[in-house]
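Suppose you are handed a protein chain with no further information: no name, no annotation, nothing but its sequence. What can you learn? This example shows the usual starting point.
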Amino acid sequence: MFTGIVTDVGEVLDLEQRGDLRARIGCSYDPNGIDIGASIACDGVCLTVIDRGADETGWFDVEISAETVSKTNIGSNGWHRGRRLNLERALRLGDELGGHIVSGHVDGIAEIVEMVEEGDSTRVTLNAPAELAQFIAPKGSVALNGTSLTVNEVQGTQFGINFIPHTKAVTNWGDAKVGDQINLEIDTLARYVARLREFG
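A reasonable first move is to predict its three-dimensional structure. Written in structure tokens, the prediction is:
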């Protein structure tokens, strides 16, 4: 489990297709503190560490199945060397829950359709898949590329998010542009509420 609070911005150092896709991700985490088999959310995708070490920078390796590639922006955007990724280590007992409960299981892909500067902040409008839009509510939570965010408004399948300068500085959201494909995880609570309503 994760909280959607990004703790590092990593970089794709290498990609290699070995049946599954293997990625090496540079990070500022101490590799000695990363266990083999640990879960790290990479742009919101929960991936398992299969190796780690340090060269000029710390790094860890993950294997990514074809199913995961097809359901996330790993495939639609095509991760590439140099791409910056939002990283979060798995939640530990006693950690502060600063965002909301995030599983690291991407539900679908949203697309940025508009970006407008408002003062120092950036208002971003995204289009969600129709089957997921029903779970997105004003003032509710979503995870976008692994970042816990509050929804401003919803109109049909489109919804708006506001990024303050701090968020853009400590995540890869400063790199965002119109047309980007974004990993979307809806709030688990919203899913359960919708399910309960079916039997109400």
